[in-house]
Amino acid sequence: MKWTRDARPRRIVVISTGGTIASRWTGSGYAADASGDDVVATAAVPDAVDVEVLDLFNVNSSRMTTDRQLALLRAVEETLADPGVDGIVVTHGTDTLEESAFFLDLHHSDPRPVVFTGAQRPFGTGDGDGPGNLYDALQVAATVRGLGVLVVFDGLVHAARGTVKTKTLAADPFADPSGDRVGRLGFGQVDIEREPVRPAPLPVPAAGRPVPRVDIVMHHSDADPLLLNAAVAAGARGVVLVGTGAGNATPEIAAAVADAVSQGVLVVLSTRVASGPVAEVYTGGGAVDLAAAGAVLAGTLRPGQARIALLAALLADVPSPERRTALLRTLLEGPVRSESVLAAAH
Question: Would you call 94 a catalytic residue per the annotation?
Answer without folding.
Answer: yes
